[in-house]
Amino acid sequence: GASVVFLGIGKILLAVFLGKSALTLLDAFPLSVLGVMLAIAGQELATTGFTLLVKSVGDEVDNKYQNEIDIEDPRIMADISKLKSHLLRQNTVIATITAMVIISLGKTHYGALSGWIAHMIYGSGISDVISWYRSHRY
After folding, report:
1. Beta strand extents in 24-108 (DSSP E only)
2. Tens-place pLDDT, residues 72-129
3. Is the distance from CB of 96 to CB of 87 less than 8 angstroms?
4. CA 102 – CA 118 distance, rounded (Å)
5. What is the radius of gyration, based on Cα positions, of the chain?
6. Rounded to 10 degrees, what is the CA torsion of 101, 42, 9, 12?
7. pTM of the prediction?
8. Less Cβ crowding at N or C end of the chain, within 10 Å?
């Protein structure tokens, strides 16, 4: 959190106070160094995203079956583990489709739309919409 704020403030100050002379300094960096920095930053971002995806799947299953879980029964724990694995696969596929469309087309709104469509078809989107509709019917 704070590192992003610090980076943003640093860039703003650099642009405001140094202007074109800062551009000359930034142009001095070799493209190979910038490419490696970009690859490492992308890998860190992907790792963080996947970690949050795994955590959200675990939290979703734990919240859904919070009162029903018998930790002593190994069959129930195996079923919960299979459910977590299935949900993780679903969410990973949906996130990958979204990222691939955004990266290949360079249009975030197309990626969001394709992610939503993938969620509706491959994920639990249809059942979520149906349960929402039934709960909001008079």
Report:
1. none
2. 677 777 777 888 888 888 988 999 999 999 999 999 999 999 999 999 998 888 888 8
3. no
4. 14
5. 22
6. -60
7. 0.62
8. C
